[in-house]
Design brief:
alpha+beta, Glutaredoxin, four-stranded mixed sheet, 11 helices, globular, binds glutathione
């Protein structure tokens, strides 16, 4: 399988974590931000990431559809153990929606600095400004402390859970952990300070999850 990705993408990292936790064989294709030709040809025009291509050549776009597809497979129940399908998918959808809505604003100014090419930085800014208005990235930078505080408030109950048990739904990671991981990965890429100021618990949960993923990763 191939997973088309941007290195910082929370949605792509979620899908990659699911692949790792399932022990699936895959390779990551880093899509150049300013040249999505391969992706466009593959999908017929969809140029967001992640996109998964399986060994039979079937193309799946959108991280939720990718996770659904992977989790419908033989080992899916390990990451969505019954009877917790409802709460696990609901937590994952909360990560992808309301939580991502705050986290991507917090992360965007730092992520923009990671692009080496000025043209990529400019395109990234242009895409954000077309959707959220002129100067939005600078505005999010100015609001960094407020966005960080809001992220902390939203994650407070999650942090309480992770103080009491290793993963969100018990002793083993589930899809919910993978979804939260994607966002935490994005925040860490944007600024290592963000996770530290949220709680040490989040950092140690990430390390634990990364260790499990590393152990299960197919070579
Ligand atoms: N609902 C989609 C959202 C995908 C998405 O927004 N991907 C971002 C990267 S995190 C993207 O490709 N953005 C295009 C761009 O920045 O031009 C999913 O879950 O896969």
């Amino acid at each position: 399988m191939k997973l088309y990705s941007f290195p910082y993408s929370c949605y792509a990292r979620k899908a990659q974590m699911v692949l790792d936790l399932l022990g699936a064989r895959y390779e990551v294709v880093d899509v150049p931000y300013g040249d999505r030709t391969e992706l466009a040809l593959l999908t017929g025009g969809y140029i967001q990431v992640p996109v998964l291509v399986d060994d039979a050549g079937e193309v799946t776009a959108d991280s939720r559809s990718i996770c659904k597809r992977l989790l419908d497979g033989p080992r899916g129940a390990e990451l969505v153990p019954p009877p917790w399908q409802g709460p696990i998918w609901a937590y994952s959808d909360w990560c992808d929606g309301p939580l991502e809505d705050v986290c991507f604003r917090l992360a965007t100014p730092g992520l923009r600095e990671l692009f080496e090419r000025p043209a990529d930085r400019a395109l990234y800014t242009f895409i954000k400004e077309r959707k959220f208005g002129r100067g939005c990235v600078e505005e999010w930078k100015r609001s960094e402390e407020a966005l960080l505080a809001r992220t902390g408030e939203m994650l407070a109950p999650t942090i309480e859970t992770l103080r009491r048990q290793s993963f969100l739904f018990g002793a083993s990671p589930t899809l919910a952990d993978a979804s939260l991981y994607g966002l935490c990965f994005m925040l860490r890429a944007a600024s290592p300070r963000f996770l530290g100021s949220l709680a040490e618990t989040v950092k140690s949960w990430m390390e634990k999850l990364e260790k499990v993923a590393h152990r299960r990763r197919a070579v």
